[in-house]
Amino acid sequence: MATQPLDTAETAGDESRTPDQQLRDEWAKEFRDGLDRSSLEKPLATADTPIADIDVSRPELYSMDRWQPVFEKLRREDPVHYCKDSIYGPFWSLTSYKPIIHVEALPDIFSSDWRNGGFTILDSTDDPTMALPMFIGMDRPEHTAQRRTVSPAFTPSEMFRLDENVRHRTAELLDSLPVGETFDWVKDVSIELTTGMLAILFGFPWEDRRNLTYWSDWMGDIVAALDPELGPKRNKIMWEAATYFQALWKQRKESDPGPDLLSMMAHSDALGDMDERNFLGNITLLIVGGNDTTRNSMSGAAWFMNRFPEEREKLIADPGLIKNAVSETIRLQTPLAHMRRTATEDTELFGKEIRKGEKLVLWYLSANRDESVFEDADRWIVDRDNARRHLAFGYGIHRCVGARLAELQLQVLFEELAARRLMPETTGETERVNSNFVHGYKSMPVKLVKY
Question: What UniProt keywords apply to this chain's record, in alphabetical order (predicted)?
């Protein structure tokens, strides 16, 4: 998943690492060396794989786009499924809508806290000297206090304020693209627009904005985290990002409060005096969350417009459907495939006995294809009447804090394409991200055509 280094984002040499960073690398190596890799030698799951042998954690399922029939089988036959053998250890897979809603509604029983394992299928360390705490990986009341600090950056009034900027940058970008010539939609549209928005949101130096994409790709790559060679490189890149942001953080704290998110955090009671690890953790969350959700939804929009031409024609005929099409695009794409919870006590879940300490993986991309909730769930239907019921942003206290901003950016992209009577037409093979967490695209060759 991770991109190649930019000239301005080279990783630091070993001689520049602090003792703390060296300890982190040593812990990561011990963690990777202790993994059972025998599960990687088994064939990828298919619809014919016996239920007991299904492991949906393999990233190739998603990069090869073969996950749909496997999850359909799990939803039909075993929606709360136990996988006893994976590279991430044993885990429960929740694959249908109702069990996921149930778990999300009980955050005291099903924890997101990093001290209990964290919020992805990859276990976080419970060693406080090695952890990267972030508010999505906290339970109440810590989560409530820290989330409240960043929430004002995503209110309806803030979206109204940002609308003009988003629209101007989107229009300018579309007008710069060649009509009728092939280019990469992911690189030249999805990444460019989301990176620019992150830079504005953080008050990040514009000339260095592409570092945000580079850092985000490595931070969100939980597959690379397990690799003996890529794991240490990922650690160095994360600390490089921390060093850069710490300088910005110091600058914001020494300045008067401003409208950007870094300034809000620096001057808040809940986050203003956080230590280095909390700081990096929350920055990581906001960068990865802000980048991947919007970027992969924008790429998904281009893919769906090509795969479902009859729905594209509906949208062309009635631009009033755009707002609903935004929700439908996010539902069908589901840019983050899963989140994870850990049971804090023995409990029963839809007929299954869950033990304290066991890992539950909430497969949002499967719940968003649940046929009992979304009729004809594998199709992009721009006038679907319940598209907003999707779980791509999660549910409950951990629902994505930046959901409105992701929706705004995607809506503006649809509107500005419609205003120019342009659509992206795929011209070659689309490459997908090799990840069980970030569900998206690495490249998508297209050409813009007039209609």
Answer: Heme, Iron, Metal-binding, Monooxygenase, Oxidoreductase
